[in-house]
UniProtKB/TrEMBL annotation:
Enzyme class: transferase
Known pathway: Cofactor biosynthesis; thiamine diphosphate biosynthesis; thiamine phosphate from 4-amino-2-methyl-5-diphosphomethylpyrimidine and 4-methyl-5-(2-phosphoethyl)-thiazole: step 1/1
Organism this protein belongs to: Ectothiorhodospira magna
Protein name as catalogued: Thiamine-phosphate synthase
InterPro entries the UniProt entry points to: Aldolase_TIM, ThiamineP_synth_sf, ThiamineP_synth_TenI, TMP_synthase
Sorted UniProt keywords: Magnesium, Metal-binding, Thiamine biosynthesis, Transferase
Catalysis performed (reactions): 2-(2-carboxy-4-methylthiazol-5-yl)ethyl phosphate + 4-amino-2-methyl-5-(diphosphooxymethyl)pyrimidine + 2 H(+) = thiamine phosphate + CO2 + diphosphate; 4-methyl-5-(2-phosphooxyethyl)-thiazole + 4-amino-2-methyl-5-(diphosphooxymethyl)pyrimidine + H(+) = thiamine phosphate + diphosphate; 2-[(2R,5Z)-2-carboxy-4-methylthiazol-5(2H)-ylidene]ethyl phosphate + 4-amino-2-methyl-5-(diphosphooxymethyl)pyrimidine + 2 H(+) = thiamine phosphate + CO2 + diphosphate
Domain Thiamine phosphate synthase/TenI: 15-194
Any matching Pfam family: TMP-TENI
Family per record: Belongs to the thiamine-phosphate synthase family.
Transcription in keyword set: no
Lineage: Bacteria, Pseudomonadati, Pseudomonadota, Gammaproteobacteria, Chromatiales
Cofactor binding remark: Binds 1 Mg(2+) ion per subunit.
Domain of life: Bacteria
Amino acid sequence: MTTPPISRQSRLHGLYVITPQDAGDTLLEQAAAALTGGARILQYRDKSRDHDRRLAQAQALCRLCRDHQALFIVNDDAALAARVEADGVHIGSDDGDIATARALVGPERIIGVSCYNRLELARRAEAAGADYVAFGALFPSGTKPGAVHAPLSLIREARQSLAVPITAIGGITQDNADRVIQAGAHMLAVIQGVFSAPDIRAAAADLSARF
Ligand SMILES: Cc1ncc(COP(=O)(O)OP(=O)(O)O)c(N)n1
Ligand SMILES: Cc1ncsc1CCOP(=O)(O)O
Ligand SMILES: [Mg+2]
């Protein structure tokens, strides 16, 4: 009897790093450091409209994640996720609906959905086929200063009422990570707390060790 393959969905746990917009030529080097440190999931988040560059960077990051046995998620763009054969896509309220994303990425890939500070959005996302939900910003975020605030109590409440894995995002650092995990988050999504650290690999290793 052959062992069934481990699903992507079962790997939604641990440090989830998101690439910084300003990485420039060092994008791959920075991503490699975070993955070497232990990040289990990496999201390509690029708000530019440079299609060719986005495609090339997504392809390169996808290969890098495969080499590190990490999941690769594309932000906002389900068509790009499908094109580069990423493990999934992350969508928010401006990025189309779950049914459209599912039609683009197919039944097996991961769809993550931003639910901000609203549990009812998460319940609806779960019912519509989301594979994980994200709440935040838990703490003030230098990357997204205008992000709506989600309290830690929401993570606790969500953990009791949802079946899908929960990601926390927004201002997560080595100083507050333990509280977020204790509240019930399966994943910590982090940009500056890893990529603005003096030693990216060490910051990722420290945060990964909290799980
Ligand atoms: C893991 C994760 N959680 C939340 C977000 C935010 O998504 P969205 O609300 O669509 O905002 P942008 O990131 O697109 O500016 C995310 N990207 N990843
Ligand atoms: C994309 C996003 N959505 C809510 S906060 C945030 C930014 C997270 O970045 P950081 O970890 O630097 O606060
Ligand atoms: Mg988005």
